[in-house]
Amino acid sequence: MSRHLDLADSSARSPLNHGSRRTPALLSVIIPCYNEEEVIGETIKRLRSFCASLTDLDVELIFVDDGSRDRTRTLLKGFASEDARIKLICFARNFGHQIAVTAGIDAARGDAVVLIDADLQDPPEVILQMVEKWREGYDVVYGTRTERPGESRFKLATARSFYRLLNRLSEVPIPLDTGDFRLMSRDVVTTLNAMPERDRFVRGMVSWVGFNQIALPYRRAERFAGESKYPLRKMIRFATDGILSFPASPCRSPWPWA
Question: What stretches of 25-96 show up as alpha helix (H) in DSSP?
Fold first, then answer.
């Protein structure tokens, strides 16, 4: 698969192109999954409902199974066999959320690319508002959580501390209360795909690349089913990776050309 969309094809598909060759733009939705058998059926249902509401966009749903040990992969294969919009990337083992997201970004063909988790805490319906902002000319529309029901005080406190520490260390501010739930234009995706980082911290990288970005406030939901895939040990590892791999400082830059 080609790493980048051909520029001529991108122009023909763009929703902002008014030429005679205009065709429906393609929206890629990337959904990383790890042991989500209890929720994946409802996730597919909600995403299909979302797709039905888009009358002038084609959609591909890219599920990245990050080495699930339950029936997530089997269920996804069944859904993919009956719905041509569903694409499936399967890892032989668990590599982690950021690697799964990166694989989806690399495979996406869309003029715009959305990242969303499978647990339905980030409502698929919010993507409609992201698409509207994209059509207004924004390259990145990132979801900002106004409420986070179902999450412990400890998790909320550690999340706040992590982002404040990261922003103190970094020359590039990362929006508070913001995860990976976002829409990115093809130009942003092409730039991310060209970056050589092995330890990926996607939300930090998206902030760093610039472009025209805007926040979209939304209310986060509780998990529909199943358990959080970020126990304390993984939260600490994720925070450490983010702090070590992303911040630029006078004594250390994570990008060779910076």
Answer: 40-52, 72-82
Task: Find out whether 155 and 235 touch, Cβ atoms under 8 Å.
Answer: yes
What global pTM score does this model have? 0.74
Backbone φ and ψ of 157, nearest 5°: -65, -45
Dist CA 56 CA 25 (whole Å)? 8
Rounded distance, CA 128 to CA 211, Å? 21
Give residues with Cβ within 8 angstroms of 251, minimum separation 6: none
Question: From CA 211, how far away is CA 85, in angstroms rounded?
Answer: 29
CA 147 to chain CA centroid, nearest Å: 19
Over residues 64-87, the pLDDT tens digits come to 999 999 999 999 999 999 999 999
Amino acid in the structure at residue 39:
V
Q: Which residue has the tokens 């999340």?
A: 159
Average pLDDT over residues 47-74: 94
Phi, psi dihedral angles at 113 (to 5 degrees): -130, 130
Residue 179 and residue 145 in contact, taking contact as beta carbons nearer than 8 Å: yes
**Res. 158 pLDDT band, cuts 50 70 90:** low
Helix axes 153-169, 232-245, angle to 10 degrees: 10
pLDDT exceeds 60 at position 160: yes
| C-alpha to C-alpha distance for 42 and 33, rounded to whole angstroms | 13
Residue 238: what pLDDT?
55
pLDDT class of 190 with cuts at 50, 70, 90? very high
